[in-house]
Write a structure and sequence with these properties.
globular, three-stranded antiparallel sheet, mainly alpha, about 10% strand, Arc Repressor Mutant, subunit A, 7 helices
């Protein structure tokens, strides 16, 4: 006896999971050249947008738990991409800042979104469809975040 709702093809989570894994795999050759992982790349994107952020702010922006991001930040600090310091205003908070090496990496990383975007839209998807998908996924993220509270 088969339950339709338990078939893999009827799950919303599976295509999102599979697409996520395949996208991350597509990033890997570019990130290998920068000697960073995909989660490190996400942290760098956040810091290139706004340097000097607290660990909690980065965690919130990336929808990660602090116990997940702390070891990631430790590795990035060991690679001299960032520095972590106690806040002068509130010593309970840790502020993460880019090093010069971390700032310099931004120039090398600029080609990544363009190259991946070109690959993605050269197939079946158009730029408009990709933008619509991103909008839909952000709506889903917002809804799931709301339900979590």
């Amino acid at each position: 006896m088969t339950n339709e709702q338990l078939k893999l093809d009827n799950q919303l989570c599976f295509p999102i999971y599979a697409a996520s894994r395949l996208i991350i795999r597509s990033y890997q050759p570019y990130l290998d050249k920068l000697d960073i992982t995909y989660p490190q790349y996400l942290v760098m994107l956040v810091l290139w947008e706004k340097d000097e952020m607290t660990v909690n702010a980065i965690s919130k922006r990336l929808i990660l738990n602090t116990n997940t991001i702390t070891p990631l930040l430790q590795r990035m600090e060991n690679q001299h991409l960032i520095v972590r310091q106690r806040s002068a205003v509130d010593e309970r908070k840790v502020v993460v800042s880019l090093t010069q090496k971390g700032r310099d990496l931004q120039e090398s990383a600029q080609e990544i979104p363009v190259r991946l975007g070109t690959k993605l839209v050269s197939g079946k998807l158009t730029v408009k469809e990709m933008q619509e998908l991103k909008t839909t996924l952000y709506a889903l993220i917002d809804e799931l975040s709301r339900l979590e509270k």
